[in-house]
């Protein structure tokens, strides 16, 4: 899927860095919007792993007072995510019922999917960008002036090259890997996707046997990107997407690591297991035509001591 390539950058100028962990550079001719507190609204959904990243990074960096947050509900139809969690089903800042309205405000004939996360310019009501890897990248690099004093260094220079490689593997083999399993159209495609996913998860299990986080002793963007898939593994991907060799709870290092991150408010507060389950099991009628939402697993296990300190 092609995304709106616009970037919000310091002074509306050139970006600080030209990669976002996907192996592709931002288009050099992509429009640049200026960093400006109060000008933009992040529209996300706690159900969506890609949007979940943006919620976490915004909180980790302390950007809550400069970029407002609107949350869509967990289910949507073919047209758009909707604001059914808000009174009257209307976003209180943008005054719209559907995220689609923000896309159409800028592109009246927008031909692609209406996705979250999306950043919307409040004054015009039009979408600025929905290019999710660049949104979190730019929260760190371009909004630095507005970070809280103790904000973590999510892109440490000394490990950035290795981190790019780690994030690319996490993106292709894990973040996308669960979807490759879930939407496989043949047994052969599913078998291949399943093997790729568990090869990557075994590699991560081994990597986390010698370090607390993916890049060492401190949280980075790489951890944010892996966490949002791990948080959904047992609740959704294990059954719904047939990623069922093991549960996360049966992989000691990954499970302790996931609970370690979950204990941090920016991570744990961003997770709503009921919304996550409702999104996948209700929206994906081709996979789950009954739309029955499972009652388990018990989310209380996420509060057990992680022992990673």
Overall morphology: globular
Q: Give the name of the CATH architecture of the largest domain.
A: Up-down Bundle
CATH level 3 topology of the largest domain: Glutathione S-transferase Yfyf (Class Pi), Chain A, domain 2
Top-tier CATH class of the largest domain: Mainly Alpha
- What is the H-and-E element order? EEEHEHEEHHHHHHHH
The figure for the number of domains is: 2
Number of helical stretches of at least 4 residues: 10
Q: How would you state the average pLDDT, rounded?
A: 95
- Total beta strand runs: 6
| Oligomerization category of the chains in this entry | single chain
| Strand line-up in the sheet with most strands | 4-3-5-6
Share of residues in helices: 25-40%
Amount of beta strand:
5-15%
Low-confidence stretches: none
In short:
By secondary structure, this protein is of the alpha/beta class. The protein is built from ten helices and six strands, in the order E-E-E-H-E-H-E-E-H-H-H-H-H-H-H-H. The strands form two sheets. A four-stranded mixed beta sheet has the order 4-3-5-6. A two-stranded parallel sheet has the order 1-2.
């Amino acid at each position: 899927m092609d995304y709106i390539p616009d970037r919000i950058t310091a002074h509306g100028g050139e970006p600080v860095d030209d990669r976002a962990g996907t192996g592709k550079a931002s288009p050099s001719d992509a429009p640049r919007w200026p960093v400006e507190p109060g000008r933009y609204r992040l529209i996300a959904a706690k159900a969506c792993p890609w949007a979940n990243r943006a919620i976490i990074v915004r909180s980790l960096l302390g950007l809550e007072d400069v970029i407002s947050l609107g949350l869509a509900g967990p289910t949507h139809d073919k047209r758009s995510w909707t604001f059914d969690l808000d009174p009257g089903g209307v976003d209180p800042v943008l005054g719209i019922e559907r995220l689609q309205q923000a896309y159409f405000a800028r592109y009246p004939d927008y031909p692609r999917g209406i996705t979250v996360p999306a950043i919307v310019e409040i004054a015009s009501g039009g979408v600025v960008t929905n290019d999710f890897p660049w949104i979190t990248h730019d929260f760190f690099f371009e909004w630095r002036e507005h970070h809280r004093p103790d904000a973590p260094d999510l892109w440490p220079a000394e490990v950035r090259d290795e981190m790019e490689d780690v994030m690319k593997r996490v993106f292709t083999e894990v973040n996308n890997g669960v979807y490759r399993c879930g939407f496989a159209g043949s047994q052969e495609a599913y078998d291949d996707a399943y093997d790729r996913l568990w090869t990557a998860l075994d590699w991560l299990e081994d990597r986390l046997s010698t370090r607390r986080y993916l890049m060492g002793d401190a949280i980075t963007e790489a951890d944010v990107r892996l966490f949002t898939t791990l948080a959904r593994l047992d609740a959704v991907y294990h059954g719904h997407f047939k990623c069922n060799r093991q549960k996360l709870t049966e992989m000691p290092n990954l499970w302790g690591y996931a609970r370690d991150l979950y204990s941090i408010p920016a991570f744990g507060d961003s997770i709503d297991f009921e919304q996550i389950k409702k999104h996948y099991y209700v929206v994906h009628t081709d996979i789950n035509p009954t739309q029955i939402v499972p009652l388990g697993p018990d989310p209380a296990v996420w509060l057990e001591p992680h022992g990673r300190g």
